[in-house]
Amino acid sequence: MSKFNPEKLTTEFLDGVTAVGAVIPRRYTLTHSDATGDLFLTIGIHYAWNKLNLMRDEVLGEWKTDGGSLYYCVYLQIDQEPYNQAVSARRNEVFRRELPLALEAIRYGDRALFARYPELDQAPILVNFMSVFPQFARQENWGNFHQFE
Predict the structure, then answer these.
(1) pLDDT confidence tier of residue 55, bands split at 50, 70 and 90
(2) Does the reported pTM lie above 0.85?
C-alpha cells in the first residue's frame, strides 16, 4: 500500500456543500493521477461524474442511514469493458491494497466535518465491490474511519 501524503490531496466542495455542512446528502468522488500520484477529492450533493475516466478506478462513497444510524457506503467498479476475469482479478487486488489509502484521504479531505461530528469516526464503512464475476462481487465491512485517521 502507498503511504498517504496530505500534500498530494486536493479537496473541492461542490453543489453548495461546505466543509462543515450537512452529512446527508454528501457524496465523495476520489480520483488520482497515475503520472503524479496526486489525489483529487470532490465532495458534493452528487458524484462528480465529469471527473471520471475510462479506467474507472475512482472511489465513490456516500453517507447513508439505516434506522437512524449513519454508515459510509463505498462503491468500487472492479470490471472494465471488455470483461476479462484476469483483468478484474488484478484490479480487485489493486483496490484492496490501495483502499486504506483512499479511506485515509477521504477522512483527511473532510476532516472539518469529522471534527464537527466526531461520531462519524465510529460509523461503519461498507465497501461494495461491483463485478460481473461472482468471486469479486461482494459487500464487506471495512471497520470505521477511526482506523484511517
Answers:
(1) low
(2) yes
